[in-house]
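User: Can you recover a sequence for this backbone? Please restate the input before giving your answer.

Assistant: Of course. Working from this structure:
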């Protein structure tokens, strides 16, 4: 369906609504529905791609045939109601879900063209190619300095000059250097919540990952700290490819270049953020981004 969704009056609008109702009913019945993917993504260099990716928790299917591409150097947002599979999808990228014995998957994900789920993949090595920032700041109970250089320490780096350079570069990259440069040996837990989250971002970028994964990074923060994180995302894009889960529509609209709308484990529509928010192809997308449901 290629009609835009602001044409809701009259017979055509009625048809659009009927198609949407039918599609949601099929989803509720556990059927797969095709994703409406806008063509602009095909012009982008791709860092991460999912191909018909399905995930089950035991007998319950949580993700259905997800096909999405993450553009290099851009911010891609995953949006949708609670329980739609956003966090499950982002945690599948660095294989955190592997830790659950009930999980099994079909399909594949490719990072820089290489399968993430191929037999024999070194999962620890794979995770080193990604930075992960969680909902709640999770600094280690050690100094600010040691938090930032931790990824290098576990790789065996002992050169103090290298560690110092990475620490400063990462803290500057996370817009935190000026606030903590005179207290690098203080315990990271002494920082405010917003500072702790920016410290976690500094730790995530210290190893110069190929992709930065953010799972609702502002959900535990106050509005001022949230603004700082959003400004930081804007500064980091270009140097980093970012995949972010957010429940905040305005945040997705402000920070991302591409937006993927998920519903009950299905990816319904994927395209440039401005299009998704202003002239989506599907009426379900319009209903969600305008607050009619979810």
């Amino acid at each position: 369906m290629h009609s835009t969704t602001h044409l809701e009056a009259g017979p055509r609008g009625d048809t659009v609504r009927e198609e949407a109702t039918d599609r949601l009913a099929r989803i509720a019945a556990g059927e797969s529905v095709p994703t409406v993917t806008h063509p602009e993504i095909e012009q982008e260099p791709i860092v991460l791609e999912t191909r018909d990716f399905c995930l089950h928790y035991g007998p319950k299917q949580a993700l259905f045939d997800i096909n999405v591409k993450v553009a290099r150097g851009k911010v891609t947002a995953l949006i949708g109601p609670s329980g739609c599979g956003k966090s499950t999808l982002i945690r599948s990228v660095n294989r955190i879900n592997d830790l659950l014995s009930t999980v099994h998957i079909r399909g594949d994900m490719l990072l820089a063209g290489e399968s993430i789920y191929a037999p024999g993949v070194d999962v620890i090595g794979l995770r080193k190619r990604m930075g992960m920032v969680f909902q709640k700041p999770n600094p280690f109970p050690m100094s600010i300095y040691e938090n930032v250089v931790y990824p290098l320490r576990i790789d065996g780096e002992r050169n103090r000059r290298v560690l110092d350079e990475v620490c400063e570069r990462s803290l500057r990259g996370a817009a935190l250097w000026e606030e903590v440069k005179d207290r690098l040996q203080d315990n990271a837990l002494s920082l405010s919540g917003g500072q702790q989250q920016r410290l976690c971002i500094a730790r995530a970028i210290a190893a110069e990952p190929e992709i930065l994964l953010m799972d609702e990074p502002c959900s535990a923060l106050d509005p001022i700290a949230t603004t700082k994180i959003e400004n930081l995302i804007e500064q980091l894009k270009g140097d980093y490819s970012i995949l972010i889960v957010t429940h905040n529509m305005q945040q997705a609209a402000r920070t991302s270049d591409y937006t993927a709308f998920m519903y009950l484990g299905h990816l319904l529509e994927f395209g440039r953020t401005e299009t998704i928010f202003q002239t989506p192809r599907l009426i379900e997308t319009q209903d969600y981004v305008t607050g009619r449901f979810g």
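That completes the design. Confidence is low (pLDDT under 50) at residues 1-10.
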